[in-house]
Amino acid sequence: MIVRILGEGQFRVDDAATAELNRLDSELERAVEHNDEAAFTAALGGLLAQVRALGAPLPPDTLEPSDLILPHQDSSMDEVRKLLTEEGLIPG
Amino acid sequence: MGVMKRVQLVFKAKANKALDKMEDPRETLDYSYQRQLELLTKVRRGVADVATSRKRVELQMNQLQQQANKLEDQARKALGMGREDLARAALERKASAQAQLNDLQAQYAQLQAEEEKLTVASQRLQSKVDAFRTRKETIKATYTAAEAQTRINEAFSGISEEMGDVGMAIQRAEDKTAQMQARAGAIDELMASGALDDAVGGSRRDDIQSELDMMSASSDVERELSRLKGEITASAPKQLEGGANGSNQGQPQNAQNAQEQSAPYAPPPPQAQTQAQPAGVPVSDLPAAEPQDGEES
Asked: Does B87 map to a domain?
């Protein structure tokens, strides 16, 4: 499974880690729904740390699309909300 | 569905939309490659812009640091002259300059981080663009338009995701740079207003400095005065000095003499104060420091 952290690049993560990533991802989603900034920061930090710890960086010249994409390390909750809309933050 | 998957789908939808616009898949390859080259130029310009902004902040930080140092120096001189009020004023301004400096330092670190991220992003994009160019040529040479479709889609989705990521990185860096420039502009105005005692950049003398100058000029006069007085004392009768060193201080006729002998250590009458100063306070440095202040600018 390939996971991209925006602003950092892509990682190949073993499928065995999926459950843990999904758990953290659910927390992140709940935090955004409940507008809970502290929970949001904690969940995002945990998620990124997991991907960095478990994943191996992909060589820069690969052209494979990712299976999952994670927001930037210093994203605000507002940024993530915009990211989730089609016309959101991705330019071009 | 979790956040990670939803973000991925948004990126994918974006790529698909671009793909759908193309009638001949191979046309997609060339068009996309052009866009990639444009983005590469843009991200490199982004790196240069952030660097320029960072250097400006660096310059401002140096100015503020010089100012803080100068104000502390003034405070020290003022204290040496017994002017705690002036010293306090100088230290208050120093605190203000220091606060601006701390604020800038934090933002400077952010800009530096942004510059590094963008540099890495630019290198990563370069690698992917190179890979894409190779893939593009292979696809064009090997497959018919119909056969090429799947392979083009793969390559296109991969690079398109990277382009979206880099595009966002540029946008974020631009936002940070704009914030920083607004901040730097505000500090320039603050410095120009004199609120931080801008004697570093201009020829205008600030009020604390001019008062210190005035005091040091008058203390020059005092020092000359006490030197002359010293010459006169030196020629005073010997037996009186001997009496002062003796143990008969209780006697009224020797009290005046004893006071003269211990003058440098006693709570000072005016002329005694200037005698005491050369020991602890670099009064003689003060006039010499003036021209240096002017040269710094």
From this structure: yes
The ipTM (two decimal places) reads 0.90
Residues B131-148 pLDDT 10s:
999 999 998 888 877 777
State mean pLDDT over B221-249: 66
By C-alpha distance, which of B122, B108, B126 is closest to B169? Answer: B122
For residue B294, is it within any domain?
no
With respect to residue B58, please indicate whether it lies within any of the assigned structural domains.
Answer: yes
Query: Mutate which of B5, B7, B123, B156 to test chain A, going by most A C-beta atoms within 10 A?
Result: B7
Return the residue of B nearest to A60 by Cα: B124
B116 found inside a domain: yes
For chain B, what is the domain count? 1
| Closest residue by Cα to residue B114 from B153, B165, B170 | B170
Domain that holds residue B141: 44-146
Model pTM above 0.90: no
CA dist B178 and B197 (Å) reads: 27
